[in-house]
Every structure is written in structure tokens, then in C-alpha cells.
């Protein structure tokens, strides 16, 4: 199959595909509930009429996506901040490699920040298993999400990696459009943000000069820090169950995580845009390492920037001290914050049935403490 046809199977919607996608959205039985949550108090008939007038992806993002993130941040967080964006060049495409804590919001909030600062929004990777419903599929592809295939047999994984790599390189080098991609397959569940070396290898597939090829992608590490992780207890439960037996997701579990991530309390949120890797890659090239060694080093540099970019909140320091059984970080929090953290943790753990509460507590604490330890 030609690459152009394979790209058609995974790419976001083009502008000429927006109108039929909008029609499917407004007719979907679940869309009214989405509008009621996001556009509270707005006349539904008038809003539907405005949606039906949308003719481009950019128009949809302005009307729906920008407002959506603003509403979610207002309703479920204590504020949004960011740093490092001043180093971005508006005329240059970037590959934003980010830590991944929430299925939808990590990328969605970054798009909001880019738009707010006058930059073009980026395309976004979205795993095929999350395209579970026509509503999510249309919302995703209207928001520049492209299908990112993972898993399968070794042959299937290799074929998918080739397609993913070719598409990412095409978008960045030919279409001159930025891309957001997670540093790993799936969300970080234990708080330990680590870049998979397979991702770096995939990005440079087919190239003879590893560092030169990656430099053309203008890779920028991005860190997102939630004061409160809405899915923390869901992640702790999954990790706990996975220690006992092979964990198999229940039907609609990803959808539950998406909705919990959107509506759950996030506290304060901070994004840190790191430094483009090009200077690092140039220095690494001069060392003339074997590609496998260079890939390990590149993944390590992405990790270093993501760890240092993490905005550490009182919850993180509290969890670290509880795990260590000491007060090493006590200057970073108050007794009132400790009481609130312990009370919240206790309520969440008590909601689980048939578990060892002490073991789950340790897992829960590690989710918050790990970013502190990674910065040391």
C-alpha cells in the first residue's frame, strides 16, 4: 500500500471533511450532554447552529476546543500556568515529547497554551484503542489527532513503527506542522516519567545519520505537572491488581479514565517547555557512539529535562516524606496541607474493596513522590 493511502487512514480530518463530521457530532446522542457541561447556560439551538456553520479545523478549534479547555480548567482546577514558551519560534515546527499523565488533557491543554500565545496548534498522537466511539473519533480528528498504532506481533509492531515514523517525519518536514507525542506507550501510572528508547528509535527509522535526522524534528521535551491527579486512585488500583495477576481492562475503562480526568479535581496545573535538543544532538554526534548507545543517551536527556521541568507541589513533598518516614522536605508544606493530603488519600483508598490498604497506600504515595526523587 502506498504511503499516501496509509497516511489517509491515520491523519486528522482535512477541512473538506469537517462539515460531515460536525453533522455526525450534533446528531450523536451523547453530544448534548457534552455541550451542557462545557457551554452551561448557552442556548443549545443557537450553539448547534453555530457548529453547523463551521467549515475548517481551525474554526472548530476556536469555537469548541479553546472554550472546552478553558471551561475544564475553570471548573476542575485551581489555575493554569506555564513557562519556557518564550523560546519557541512561531515559524518553526516542533516535535513536543511530553510526559503523559492524563489521556486527553495533557495534549489538549498544550494546544490551548499554544493558541493563546499566538502559535499554531499541533497535531496529536492518539492510540487506536481510544478511538472507541464515533463521537470520540470525530472530536479527536477535528482536533488534529492522528491514529498512532502500537502493539501486535513483532512484525506488526515493526510495520506500524515504519508508518508512524514516516508520517511524523512527513508532517514535520513537509507540512511544517508541529506534533505532540507522549514519551511512552500509555500514561505514567507510578509517577516515574521515563522515555521509551523505542520511541527515539522509531523517530529515526530508515535514517543513516541518527543525530542529524532527529535534529530535523526540533524535539522539545515538555513537562506537565498536576497538583492533584484525578485518576490517582484508579492508577493505584490498576498497579495493585497488576501485582497479583495479569491486569485486563474492563469494558469502557479508558472512557471512565477520560471522564474522570476531565471532571476530577486537578488543583494547580503547570506546563514547562524545555530546550530544543539540537545542540545536545550536535555534541552527541561528535562522540561517534553506536546508535543504540546514542539512543539511550537521547532518551536520558529527554528524561532529564522532563524531571527538572516538573513543578513540585506540596503534595509531592508530603508523599516523599511519608514514604521516607522523615521530614526532609518539611519546608515545602504546612501541617494543614499534610492533614488535607492524608484525609483525601484515606477517603480514596477506603473506596476500594478487597485490597490491602497498606500496599495501595504505598503505591498511591509513590505516584506523588516519584517526581521529587527524580529531581535529585
Features:
alpha/beta, globular, Glycerol-3-phosphate (1)-acyltransferase, seven-stranded mixed beta sheet, 376 residues, 7 strands, 2 domains
Model regions low in confidence, pLDDT < 50 over at least 5 residues: none
How many domains, in number, for the residues? 2
Major β-sheet profile? 7 strands, mixed
Structural class: alpha/beta
Relative strand content: 5-15%
Give a quick precis of the structure.
This protein is of the alpha/beta class. It folds into two domains: 3-13 and 79-227 and 265-308, 3-Layer(aba) Sandwich (Glycerol-3-phosphate (1)-acyltransferase), CATH 3.40.1130.10; 314-374, no CATH class.
Protein described:
Helices cover 55% and strands 9% of the residues. It is of the alpha/beta class and 376 residues long. It has a seven-stranded mixed beta sheet, with helices on both faces. Strand 3, helix 7 and strand 4 form a beta-alpha-beta unit. Helix 2 packs antiparallel against helix 7, helix 15 packs across helix 17 and helix 16 crosses helix 17.
Amino acid at each position: 500500500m502506498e504511503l499516501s493511502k496509509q497516511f489517509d487512514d491515520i491523519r486528522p480530518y482535512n477541512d473538506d471533511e469537517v462539515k460531515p463530521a460536525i453533522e455526525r457530532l450534533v446528531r450523536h446522542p451523547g453530544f448534548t450532554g457534552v455541550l451542557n457541561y462545557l457551554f452551561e447556560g448557552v442556548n443549545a439551538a443557537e450553539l448547534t447552529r453555530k457548529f453547523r456553520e463551521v467549515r475548517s479545523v481551525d474554526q472548530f478549534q476556536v469555537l469548541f476546543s479553546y472554550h472546552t479547555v478553558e471551561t475544564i480548567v475553570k471548573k476542575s482546577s485551581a489555575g493554569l500556568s506555564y513557562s519556557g514558551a518564550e523560546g519557541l519560534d512561531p515559524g518553526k515546527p516542533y516535535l513536543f515529547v511530553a510526559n503523559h499523565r492524563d489521556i486527553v488533557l495533557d495534549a489538549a491543554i498544550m494546544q490551548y497554551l499554544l493558541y493563546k500565545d499566538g502559535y499554531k496548534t499541533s497535531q496529536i498522537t492518539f492510540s487506536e484503542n481510544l478511538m472507541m466511539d464515533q463521537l470520540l473519533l470525530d472530536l479527536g480528528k477535528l482536533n488534529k489527532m492522528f491514529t498512532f498504532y502500537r502493539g501486535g506481533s513483532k512484525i506488526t509492531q515493526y510495520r506500524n513503527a515504519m508508518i508512524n515514523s514516516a508520517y511524523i517525519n512527513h508532517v514535520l518536514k513537509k507540512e511544517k506542522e508541529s506534533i505532540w507525542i507522549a514519551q511512552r506507550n500509555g500514561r505514567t501510572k507510578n509517577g516515574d516519567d521515563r522515555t521509551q528508547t523505542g520511541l527515539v528509535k522509531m523517530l529515526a527509522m530508515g535514517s543513516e545519520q541518527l543525530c542529524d535526522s532527529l535534529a530535523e524534528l526540533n524535539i522539545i521535551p515538555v513537562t506537565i505537572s498536576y497538583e492533584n491527579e484525578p485518576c490517582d486512585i484508579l492508577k493505584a488500583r490498576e498497579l495493585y491488581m497488576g501485582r497479583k495477576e495479569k491486569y485486563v481492562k474492563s469494558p469502557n475503562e479508558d472512557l471512565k479514565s477520560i471522564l474522570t480526568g476531565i471532571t476530577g479535581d486537578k488543583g494547580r496545573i503547570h506546563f514547562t517547555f524545555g530546550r530544543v535538543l539540537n545542540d545536545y544532538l550536535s555534541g552527541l554526534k561528535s562522540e561517534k557512539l553506536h546508535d543504540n548507545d546514542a539512543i539511550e543517551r537521547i532518551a536520558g536527556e529527554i528524561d532529564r529535562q522532563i524531571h527538572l521541568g516538573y513543578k513540585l507541589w506540596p503534595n509531592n513533598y508530603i508523599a516523599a516524606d511519608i514514604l521516607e518516614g522523615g521530614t526532609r522536605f518539611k519546608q515545602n508544606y504546612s501541617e494543614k496541607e499534610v492533614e488535607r493530603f492524608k484525609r483525601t488519600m484515606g477517603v480514596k483508598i477506603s473506596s476500594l474493596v478487597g485490597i490491602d490498604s497498606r500496599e495501595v497506600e504505598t503505591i498511591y504515595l509513590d505516584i506523588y513522590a516519584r517526581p521529587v526523587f527524580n529531581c535529585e
